[in-house]
Amino acid sequence: MSHRSYGPYERYLKRPLDCLLAGGALVVLSPVLGVTAVLVKTKLGSPVLFTQERPGRIDPKTGKERIFKLYKFRTMTDARGKDGELLPDEDRLTAFGKKLRSTSLDELPELLNILKGDMAIVGPRPLLVRYLPRYSAAQRRRHEVRPGLTGLAQVHGRNAASWNEKFNWDVKYVDRITFLGDLKILLDTVRVVLKKEGITDGETATMAEFMGSEA
pTM of the entire structure? Predict the structure, then answer.
């Protein structure tokens, strides 16, 4: 599965600009990152960062998604039931954790993923590794580019959108990556975050599991 860059911005400018913006954001937001880390440590304990393997861009040599370790601020406790298994997300997500998610402060450590080259500022959100076998060929096209901190799906419903809707937005983005398009997505992201839109799907604490293509 190969991807052709839409134009010079995607081919030559997007990655250097991502590094510049992510590095600058880490410097400017370092006080916010520090305070958030202390609050997470105080209210939720260690570790402060939640890490999880996620699929990235498809490697043209192997034809498989590159797996990387995603960094986020922790938003859940480690509460377990009598059987020793972790409780459902809604039981482990605290009021403080919900606040972090509604403001998207939990996503700030992903700036490190951008500097490492795992992610871009704008692109399809990186989902779970276990979803990989469940994608249709069209849905898998979302992995032709680096996953992003935010993307078209995040400004068109976020977690409240259906899986099919989100994947359609992701593929639409892959097919036409432009500077003005990325800029508009960033501005729309600010609006969505400030209005706290689409944080959940209305039924679960985050987003229902993707089990495969919907009929």
Answer: 0.90
Alpha-carbon gap, residue 49 to 41, rounded angstroms: 9
Domain boundaries along the sequence of the chain: 8-195
Identify residue 108 by its one-letter amino acid code: L
Nearest of 164, 153, 161, 141 to residue 215 by alpha carbon: 164
HEC letters along 33-45: HHHHHHHHHHHHC
Whether residue 124 contacts residue 145, with contact meaning beta carbons closer than 8 Å, is answered with yes
Task: Identify the helix (H) or strand (E) that includes residue 32.
Answer: helix 30-44
- Picking from 128, 131, 160, the residue whose alpha carbon sits closest to that of residue 52 is 128
Instruction: List, for residues 126-167, the tens digit of each pLDDT value.
Output: 999 999 999 999 999 999 999 999 999 999 977 778 899 999
**Measured distance CA(62)–CA(66) in Å, rounded:** 9
Question: Peptide bond before 47: cis, by omega within 30 degrees of 0?
Answer: yes
Region of residue 130 (left: phi > 0; alpha: psi -120 to 50; beta: else): alpha
